Q: What sequence folds into this?
């Protein structure tokens, strides 16, 4: 096709002048899509990297003896190694994380297996209850278990004394084992979700072929089923380990008052306590963050990808194991979990909240709703004010935060899945980074970064902390749906003449609605109960709901604390109902 | 291709280059489509045909080259012009149909008109017209998810033509349909395209589809154009071994042109194992005396006879015959080569028989290797 005629035609195309060419280039590069996606990428990069970078830099700033001057040096790291309290806190954290990891893994794997693969009666009905602790505040769980099993005022101990004549106390959760107990049962759903998905998606022929070779049910389960879900189990275990290490509320309630410090409670005291030293706090945060990020990296890059090599994504009907008479044992086990993780804590908090004062026993004549009126509706210039204030602030934060985070998540997911190249890969990585760091570490980074800016002491700094730490959860919800929606659906809208924004509004967003809404509700729930970021970043006037609970727990009595805890729990449970309506159970595993 | 003044080209692609990483998906290709014509880009997956289409649509940016529609530059790397896809006024039918599942069929088809701010009443009429054209009028109120594959296909076509675009692009639109429906839709698509008269570019890996539908076919491989021509040309006069092998079935024997007897005619010597023969044949473009070439003969142009008719002698052994009703599919061993032959069913050849093959020099073509 090299006709001379054609060559002339090409030569006849008038070439644009140089200046026109640059204008053409600018016009073709500056589009709605490029401006918005680049803008969002920049926001994500700054939000994620700046606090971490500042944290690293700050950890090398040394505060001098009087607290006035600073210089560069490694003193903070020297203190970290030599300080007895910090060393003990580190060991306690390690002990708690290991303990709750073991507890949650045993409980989570057992519950997942019972629910996914056995004929245990009522398992469909029990599943939602197994997941409830996932949505509730572990801090409130700690408060509840303190009221249940504190040596003197614990309800269970009181019952043991009254009914069985136990002397002294039967149970005591005010120690490291108590911390392990509460974090363990509250993080059991994490393991459960990782494992139950693999169990349900497993190709039944893998087990059938083991059975045909002569292996019994028990043998098949131990030699085929469990090894196949090992990546899921390991993922869950690591996430529990890391989440426990970053947990603040539980050790703060059950450990600190009894002399058991952890890294998070130490960071807290360095951030706002009497011996505040932000640089030391930054150093400890860095240490904690490096450890957790390392484990999350292992989980994300090494373990999670293996989960799909043996377990296909096809929809199989999994084999169901007939437990015979043991199915009642399985049911009892599951009911026991729901009892200790959900029913008892909520019941106990409710009972406590109805008493003017709590002495460990139920006094029917004293029951009153007065505490609710006080914490929910009374504005008084003392600690209760913080509680009421916290309710108001938390709703603002949860609503705005979830909305902004999902908008960001949408654009970021679009970038990751619909554009190719280095930008998408970098962004994909940036979205994993916040998951590697506990909320309290991110919060410490945000604090040292923005303390001298006008956003400090406003709700904005909390919003920034929340979104930075948690928008990846929203992004994963959107991404899951976006991967299932063909890119051609967007492209055909562009071809039909719609601009990028119109396509986003009329095609992309409507198609992603389930994922966007599920992500929104999940973030709303997370933000409504958030404690470890809030506790670092709040100031007088910007308390949140969980900070309110913390206030009441610290400065008021147990019944008031319980009343606000119950109020928070009720709202969270309502959100859970909504969430289960809009999202499949897979939406949580992200 | 003969010289002379070509029809004015509605779509003009020049020097198109597109790389993904170090790999050149499309490597400097140029072609044009006259107004109202139907061009097919044909090739195996990974040959760059879909990438070319995406570049025309504006869904990919180019690394080099120029794309013009109706004389207007849509993309020009030299002039740094890149028109956003929504401003190109191109209709496109995607492989997955891409019918929006949250809208009805009518809403899907009305969408491009709404974007163009066409008046309500007119939208209604035009949607009805185009749905009637594709035979989906009764399905107007159905959701996309309630349609069968073939119906989604028609809806996608309706949506792509309702705004009378300057150009219509098809990205393997029939590949998800079953064979029977595919054959029916080929004819249907072609009829509708002819009726609305929109210049079209069609991408497929299915040679039968290309032969049935196209005014012109471009055979591509490895990001380059192997041959351009109308369906008959491509089939009867493949430019090289690749095209000959890709389109239809051919007996391909490597050899050497030993003599040029007349312009475009000559003799080729082929050797397979112990067997060697000189055969008169036509010479394809770029094949001269002494040049290595490949003899390409379609199975229907080979005769298998029981009696020897003298030189050139191709004596072979029937390995296998399959009776297909209207013809007989035979395999004949000659030296190390196995001939594919479609014989008339009245020659009831049997496996194990010795036969003599006769080739028609008019339909024996020496092509570039």
A:
């Amino acid at each position: 096709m090299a006709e001379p005629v054609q060559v002339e035609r090409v030569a006849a195309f008038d070439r644009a002048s140089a200046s026109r060419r640059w204008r053409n280039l600018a016009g073709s590069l500056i589009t709605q899509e490029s401006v918005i996606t680049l803008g969002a990428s920049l926001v994500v990069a700054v939000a994620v990297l700046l606090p971490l970078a500042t944290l690293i830099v700050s950890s090398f700033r040394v505060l001098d003896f009087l607290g006035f001057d600073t210089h560069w040096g490694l003193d903070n790291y020297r203190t970290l190694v030599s300080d007895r309290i910090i060393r003990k806190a580190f060991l306690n954290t390690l002990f708690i994380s290991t303990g709750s990891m073991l507890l949650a893994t045993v409980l989570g794997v057992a519950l997942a297996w019972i629910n996914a693969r056995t004929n245990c009666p009522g398992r469909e009905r029990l599943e939602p209850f197994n997941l409830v602790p996932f949505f509730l505040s572990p801090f409130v769980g700690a408060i509840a278990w303190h009221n249940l099993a504190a040596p003197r005022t614990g309800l269970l101990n009181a019952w043991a004394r009254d009914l069985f004549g136990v002397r002294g106390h039967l149970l005591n959760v005010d120690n490291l084992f108590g911390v392990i107990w509460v974090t363990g049962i509250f993080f059991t759903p994490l393991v459960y979700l990782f494992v139950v998905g693999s169990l349900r998606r497993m190709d039944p022929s893998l087990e059938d072929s083991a059975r045909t070779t002569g292996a019994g049910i028990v043998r098949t389960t131990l030699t085929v089923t469990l090894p196949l879900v090992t990546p899921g189990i390991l993922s869950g275990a690591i996430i529990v380990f890391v989440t426990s290490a970053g947990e603040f509320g539980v050790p703060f309630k059950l450990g600190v008052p009894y002399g058991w410090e952890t890294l998070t409670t130490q960071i807290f005291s360095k951030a706002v306590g009497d011996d505040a030293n932000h640089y030391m706090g930054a150093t400890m945060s860095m240490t904690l963050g490096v450890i957790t990020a390392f484990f999350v990296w292992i989980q994300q890059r090494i373990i999670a990808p293996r989960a799909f090599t043996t377990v296909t994504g096809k929809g199989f009907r999994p084999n169901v194991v007939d437990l015979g008479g043991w199915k009642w044992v399985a049911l009892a086990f599951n009911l026991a979990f729901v009892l200790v993780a959900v029913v008892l804590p909520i019941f106990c908090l409710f009972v406590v909240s109805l008493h003017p004062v709590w002495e460990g026993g139920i006094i029917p004549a004293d029951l009153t709703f007065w505490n609710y009126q006080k914490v929910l509706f009374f504005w008084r210039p003392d600690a209760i004010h913080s509680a009421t204030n916290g309710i108001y602030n938390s709703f603002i934060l949860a609503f705005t935060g979830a909305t902004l985070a999902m908008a960001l998540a949408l654009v970021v997911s679009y970038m990751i899945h619909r554009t190719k190249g280095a930008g998408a890969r970098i962004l994909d990585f940036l979205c994993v980074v916040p998951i590697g760091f506990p909320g309290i570490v991110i919060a410490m980074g945000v604090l040292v970064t923005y303390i001298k800016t006008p956003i400090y002491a406003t709700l904005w700094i909390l919003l920034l902390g929340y979104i930075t730490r948690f928008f990846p959860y929203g992004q994963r919800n959107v991404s899951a749906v976006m991967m299932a929606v063909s890119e051609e659906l967007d492209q055909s809208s562009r071809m039909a003449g719609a601009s990028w924004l119109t396509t986003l509004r009329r095609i992309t967003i409507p198609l992603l609605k389930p994922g966007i809404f599920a992500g929104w509700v999940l973030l709303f729930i997370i933000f409504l109960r958030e404690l470890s970021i809030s506790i670092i970043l709040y100031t007088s006037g910007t308390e949140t709901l969980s900070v309110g609970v913390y206030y009441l727990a610290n400065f008021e009595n147990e019944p008031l604390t319980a009343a606000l805890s119950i109020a928070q729990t009720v709202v969270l449970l309502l959100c859970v109902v909504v969430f289960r309506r809009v999202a499949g159970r897979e939406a949580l595993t992200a | 291709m003969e010289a002379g003044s070509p029809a004015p080209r509605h779509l003009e692609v020049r020097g198109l280059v597109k790389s993904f990483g170090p790999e050149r998906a499309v490597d400097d290709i140029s072609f044009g489509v006259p107004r109202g014509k139907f061009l097919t880009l044909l090739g195996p997956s990974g040959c760059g045909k879909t990438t070319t289409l995406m570049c025309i649509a504006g869904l990919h940016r180019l690394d080099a080259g120029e794309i013009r529609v109706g004389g207007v530059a849509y993309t020009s790397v030299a002039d740094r012009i890149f028109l956003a896809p929504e401003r190109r006024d191109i209709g496109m039918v995607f492989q997955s149909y891409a019918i929006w599942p949250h809208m009805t069929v009518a809403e899907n088809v009305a969408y491009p008109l709404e974007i163009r701010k066409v008046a309500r009443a007119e939208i209604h009429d035009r949607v009805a017209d185009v749905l009637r054209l594709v035979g989906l009028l009764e399905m107007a109120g159905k959701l996309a998810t309630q349609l069968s594959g073939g119906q989604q296909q028609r809806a996608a076509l309706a949506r792509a033509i309702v705004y009378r675009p300057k150009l219509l692009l098809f990205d393997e639109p029939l590949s998800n349909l079953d064979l029977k429906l595919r054959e029916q839709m080929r004819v249907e698509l072609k009829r509708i395209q002819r009726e609305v008269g929109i210049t079209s570019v069609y991408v497929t890996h299915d040679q039968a589809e290309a032969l049935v539908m196209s005014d012109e076919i471009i055979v591509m491989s490895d990001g380059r154009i192997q041959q351009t021509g109308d369906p008959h040309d491509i089939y009867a006069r493949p430019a090289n071994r690749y095209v000959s092998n890709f389109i239809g079935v051919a007996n391909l024997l490597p050899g050497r042109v030993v003599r040029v007897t007349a312009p475009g005619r000559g003799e080729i010597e082929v050797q397979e194992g112990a067997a060697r023969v000189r055969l008169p044949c036509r010479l394809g473009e770029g094949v001269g005396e002494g040049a290595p070439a490949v003899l390409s003969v379609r199975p229907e142009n080979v005769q298998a006879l029981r009696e020897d008719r003298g030189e050139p002698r191709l004596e072979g052994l029937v390995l296998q015959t399959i009776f297909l009703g209207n013809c007989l599919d035979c395999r004949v061993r000659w030296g190390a080569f196995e001939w594919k032959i479609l014989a008339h069913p009245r020659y009831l050849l049997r496996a194990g028989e010795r036969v003599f093959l006769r080739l028609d020099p008019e339909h024996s073509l020496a092509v570039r290797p």
User: Anything to note?
Assistant: The longest strand of chain B covers residues 9-20. Chain B touches chain A through 47 residues (CB under 8 Å). The first helix of chain B runs from residue 49 to 57.
